[in-house]
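Hey, can you fold this one?
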Amino acid sequence: MTGGGAKGAAKVSNRWQAWPYKLGLPASKVRNLAVWGSGYTNGEHNFMIAGLEADKLRASDALLFVWGGYWDICKGRKTGEELFAAFEAWLAARVAAGWAYKQIVVLTIIDAGDGCFFGPRMPVEDYDARRKAFNLRLASKGAELGFRVVRLDLDPRLGVRGASKNIYFKDKVHPRDLGQTVVAELVRDGF
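Sure. Predicted structure:
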């Protein structure tokens, strides 16, 4: 499951969510339950609802990927702490549904050009502070509980401030195809 894409879609509806299909897994093993314009806390079809769909696909050899937070910060105006609390609720629901921590892989929030420009404007400094607070808590909790955290935020092509103005991004928020390849490489390197 990743943020972005058509509501409840089982296949990629736009190239911004191509990274799961670049992991080198058979297409029959990949289900993208992407949630476009949503996140852990906002949207009519938020991650909790998509998580319930993912719970139906749970198997002992399955992995559950989640990547979100931009919309929570920008549209939902969540602080890093508020966003992390929402993530913990999402995580607890997945574990209660039978997912083991070792099956859950969380991607950190990446750079976003000029801060929030989808949704109400937010200065880049405020966006950065919120995403950094969330990403740090996420990494710490992952180490504590045993879920995997892919630190996209530390990669100079995607995560550091100003990265979204490079060749890997389409619109300062969404990685283009080349950026999706980088995401897949970083996910694979995490295993």
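The first helix runs from residue 47 to 56. Let me know if you want another pass with a different chain boundary.
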